[in-house]
Amino acid sequence: QNIMKHISSIAGVEYKKDAKTDVSLRVITDHIRSTTFMVGDGIMPSNEGRGYVLRRLLRRAARHGRLLGIKRPFLCEVCDTVINENAGAYPELAEKREYIKKIIGVEEEAFARNVDKGTELLNGFIAELAESGKTVLSGDHAFQLSDTYGFPIDLTIEICEEKGITVDSERFKELALEQRARAKADHLAKAGSSWADNSIRIEAPKTVFTGYTDTSAEASVLAIYKEGSEIESANEGEDVVVLLDRTPFYAESGGQVGDTGIITTGTCTVAVADTIKNEGHFLHIASVTEGTLSKGDKVTAAIDTTRRNSIMRNHTSAHLLQYALRQVLGDHVHQAGQLVNEKACRFDFNHFSAMTEQEIADVENIVNSYIMAAVPVTMQEMPIEEAKKLGAMALFGEKYGDTVRVVTAGDSVEFCGGTHVSNASHIGLFKIVSESSVAAGVRRIEAVTGTGVLELLNGFKDTINRAAKALKLANVNELPEKCAAVTAELKDKEKALESMNQQMANAKAAAIFDNASDVNGVKVVAAEVTGATPDSLRKMGDSVKDRDEDVIALFACINGEKGTFYCVCTSGAVKRGAHAGKLVQQAAAMTGGKGGGRPDSAMAGMGSTDKAAEAIAAFKDITAGFIK
User: Fold this and answer.
1) Cβ distance 453 to 429 under 8 Å?
2) Is the Cβ–Cβ distance between 248 and 302 less than 8 Å?
3) Which domain holds residue 414?
4) Which of 2, 130, 146, 193 is the most buried (most CB within 10 A)?
5) What is the domain count for the chain?
6) pLDDT digits over 21-40, tens only?
7) CA-CA distance, 430 to 452, in Å (whole number)?
8) Do 361 and 417 share a domain, yes or no?
9) In whole angstroms, what is the distance from residue 54 CA to residue 587 CA?
10) 169-191 vs 139-149: helix axis angle to the nearest 10?
11) pLDDT at 12 over 50
């Protein structure tokens, strides 16, 4: 009851006074209770699984809040009452109070940014249906709402049902599938134009992957593809996709990029630029650089080991990073995406706010402590239920069978099919380069390891040396003090320059004021100021206002093709009917420009600077229409 009373108080409504209002109150009460417990259990809003259920409940509750007239985020307030009501039986809710409120608040604010535009567009579609006497919203319109405005399909269906309208859900699903297919085709096309057509069926056994233990392998060419079609052979200069019966090349998966390297025969060399996977077949995106490659050839496939080693360092560090983030930020942290290549590790994770410098430092220290301790990294296959009992964390976007591969690095235990170093010490060093936001409730860390850290440090050193040289310092350790001294000196000079500019503005304003016109007892000045800037016009305006009680001034400056008007009115002139915003608007309109502002000061841009003189000459007559 207290939860519903809280909602009623925010909305300014009473329960059992209106049937529609009662429905919304009950929906919000039920959903905020459920979502508070879900977030307390560590579930984060997402687009899959339990996270999607949580997101749907929060969005539905937020929408019913809007139906009650609540325009601001409010669910994070109501969850306070939910926690208070249940703190006795569930003390962990009170312990996580701020965290729960933050997660719900972030999700509600993210939804609010999209819901207004989406609702407006949906109402337009519904109005069109009403006018034409139709009762089915097209799947195309529903998809447009979802794809362009992030308006969830379930919310579209709910709103339409309230209006007696059905949604063509089958067409919506068809469009969603087409979009996913396009995205996959685009990905494959980027990987290699020879495999842009994803509809090709491969009639060959699945590839045997030997890359966990070997960096090269003897193999047979099962198929060669070019521009979407299978061919018998490829000559020097041709871009192709090569399918082998076995390969040491890791195919892009789980955020780890595919391997590169070479495939050779006695007379042919093929450079592999990427490796992707299609239903168990490892596809080598390649170019024939020498000789001719034919179907059935016996080849040696060898990966670029230097690149692979860099990738492994970054991948293992990503596992340690996730463990460290959970230690520092909390168990709610889960991987939301990652990219591991030879240059860096990019790790996306669920979290509701930017990390502090101290938190970033703590995470770095934890990861580096495992590296310095030289903890072994083990990879083993086991039944999935056994892996779950070990507390192994699932990898983002991956599907698992009955048997899974588990990678253990220190206290980090994860499901993973990727390649890793055998000992954390091989990582060398771990350094976070940046921490940023990529979506509501999702943060991104970019980090480097090994030689990447060395390159980063060398870059920093070069920057510091160049800065010291620019400041004529022999000792780079003096750089902070020198920068502080230069900054202070610049501030002093800026103050002196500002003072000089004000004096010049006063002098110019005085000269212009001497030629002021009288309009019904109000002094009116209008002039173009050569060499002025918008800022100096403001200073001149301030100077003029101090010269008389009843003054209206219009100043203009032209810099190249751009022109600016600035108008000021003293309080006495405003009382007489003057309005700077309206006056400058009329002056600017004569040049084809626009602008406006407050009664006492306003600025506008010119359209054509050629007409500035005409507007200045007419300003006296313009003011006459305002002065009482």
Assistant:
1) yes
2) yes
3) 309-456
4) 146
5) 4
6) 999 999 999 999 999 999 88
7) 9
8) yes
9) 56
10) 50
11) yes
